[in-house]
Amino acid sequence: MNRRDLLKKGAVIGGAVVAAKVAGAGSKAFATQKKYRWRMVTSWPPGFPILQTGAERFAKRVGELTQGRLTIQVYAGGELVPPLGVFDAVSSGSVQCGHSASYYWAGKCNAAQWFTSIPFGMDAQGMNAWFYYGNGLKLWEEVYKQFNLVPRPAGNTSIQMGGWFNKKINSMADFKGLKMRIPGLGGKVLGKAGAAITLLPAGEIYTSLERGVIDATEWVGPCHDIRMGFYKVAKYYYYPGWHEPGSTLELIINKKAYESLPSDLKAAIDTAAAELNSKMLSEFEKENAKALTGLLKDKKIKLLRFPDEVLKGLKKLSYETIQDVASKDKLSRKVNDDFQAFKKKLSDWNKISEKVYYDFMI
Amino acid sequence: MNRRDLLKKGAVIGGAVVAAKVAGAGSKAFATQKKYRWRMVTSWPPGFPILQTGAERFAKRVGELTQGRLTIQVYAGGELVPPLGVFDAVSSGSVQCGHSASYYWAGKCNAAQWFTSIPFGMDAQGMNAWFYYGNGLKLWEEVYKQFNLVPRPAGNTSIQMGGWFNKKINSMADFKGLKMRIPGLGGKVLGKAGAAITLLPAGEIYTSLERGVIDATEWVGPCHDIRMGFYKVAKYYYYPGWHEPGSTLELIINKKAYESLPSDLKAAIDTAAAELNSKMLSEFEKENAKALTGLLKDKKIKLLRFPDEVLKGLKKLSYETIQDVASKDKLSRKVNDDFQAFKKKLSDWNKISEKVYYDFMI
After folding, report:
1. Which of chain B's termini has less CB crowding within 10 Å, N or C?
2. pTM
3. Residues of A in contact with B352 (CB under 8 A)
4. Stretch (H or E) spanning B142
């Protein structure tokens, strides 16, 4: 289906509401209570822990908050549209909302990448401060407006892992010729370092690692990585996830659908999204801590930290890469400038707050 | 007013609802829409940034979510009950809810202290993981049940500052004889170190510091400290706030009032509390970063870090103090055991995640 068809189709579905007059007379506020039946598509497999289950919890919460006046039926990736069809489906209005990650849309919208995570960017706490009390969310709305989308931060993976490796990384030179599966900006950075970057669908990573088609792969963090079984076919588990220090998930809503809602239903969506944004991070922290113990004690994995020299080298290349990518268009430059300025100011404070907590108090 | 009177009075006010029948026939869900008029008391001065304004934002959000079916009138500390009268007022039912901090109630309920912050405890991210996906909130509910209270995490100050000092702290010996205003467990720890701990009302701290009645005081973080003007009368601003690494604020609701609500209004309160819990932390991060810049650039304050030896010494004394305090009753022991076990597991993960972020990426 092309864009025009989707837009046409979307116009019908997006406007489908059930008018349920609940009172002829009485309080004006309740005089007409339209019911809204929405559909949400996600980029996650059915039942995928924390991400898909989080999207479903969000939908349930909206139903509770609105006494069923706004119900959201959630479809996992592939059930209604492909996992990476979420953006187009919501943009066109063929469904009303979606749960995904903005950096998947880099090809359509370069500036989108900053709203998930960028290499050596900010952690979850910093991203949220930028969204809610810096210009982060305002900029995101500005960027997505041209696609008829309203964005809301709706979850965070917390800082990810560096990935699973069958070759040791002792210096930047070790990236030369390394065959690694790593998408996005992280892949661009390692490409600059001389790695041979491949993109593989999730289902092919394990076998490719096992057969030596690739030397390394990144995935998410301990709790999702353990399910993929990579510990069986890779020698080393590296940290930190320098390329994704705190990836924000997104709720995207078709702008027309959002604007057609009465203010209490808009508030229900906004509040439930903020709740999901915070609680998903908590769930990741809890589950990652648990899975890491399992990986270390039961699976006896070998945990390694990228050496200082490597982290310094990656930081330098990341900075160059991000400058390149930001220079592609005016909006990306604007977003990057604001992001970096916010990060700088926050870092000055975090050097005497959170950093000391993690140095001395854990 | 004594406890019995409050309980009696509370029973009347707590049950005061306005039944607004909005439909004689039609949808059952909307057949009877009772209106609830609640009052909230807080421990904060009128207009107090982030804390009082946060409580007011929460009330506004609940009003929006419920189309005014549940409205909450917010009273600052002293307007209806004294700042530290919040617990009793909500417990008795004389008002339906309050915004405060659980460690203020240590005298009535020893176990309450763990739900705000304890010396060398967890930061905001860790506290939230414990509340939402560990046993934190379940334990808090168990502890507060005996006082007819339902608690919800509702804000976090982020890690606080060590305080304003007119004497340098180079070793643990420098705490001997130091006259410092520092309440709670932090005060107990410094008492063990030989400091002379005093408790002063907020309005008297500045003058006491100026006149040498005290040598030091802690307060909150840069954004609230700058308003108090301590930089004019103290030589050194110490970090980190080892005694409060991530203080959670509380929403407390009278249990009977909460249970009398239909499920959608309960959901409105819970969701809005989760939103406040997350966004208040973001606001603190943003405002602290800004105020710190102001203090350093405009006020030229001298920022000092407690030396390693001092932090190690404080950690040891904190551990002993908390063991003492936890041994007072069964419930406190149960809460402390769970808190420490959760922190231990989370720390193992955070050593390879957030710690490395703060070491290398800010």
Report:
1. N
2. 0.92
3. 239-240, 292, 303, 305
4. helix B136-145
**Complex ipTM tops 0.90:** yes
Q: What is the mean pLDDT of each run of 10 residues along chain B (362 residues)?
A: 33 35 40 87 97 98 98 98 97 98 97 98 98 98 98 98 98 98 96 96 94 98 97 98 98 98 98 98 98 97 98 98 98 98 98 96 90
Please name every residue paired with B198 in a beta bridge, in sequence order, or none if there are none: B181
H helical segments located in chain A = 3-14, 51-65, 86-92, 124-133, 136-145, 184-192, 202-210, 222-228, 255-259, 263-297, 308-326, 330-350, 354-360
Domains of chain B with bracketed CATH: 3-157+247-286 (3.40.190.170), 163-245+301-328 (3.40.190.10)
pLDDT of residue B347: 98
Structure tokens at B348: 């193992």
- Taking CA–CA distances from A26, the nearest residue in chain B reads B22
Instruction: Give pLDDT, residue B9.
Output: 36
**Distance in angstroms (rounded) separating the CA atoms of residues B290 and B292:** 5
| A–B CB contacts, 8 A cutoff, strictly below | 267
Q: How far apart are the CA of B68 and the nearest CA of chain A, in angstroms?
A: 9
Best mutation target among B57, B71, B310, B357 (most A Cβ atoms within 10 Å) is: B357
C-alpha separations of B322 from A343, B135, B315, B327 in Å = 36, 19, 10, 8
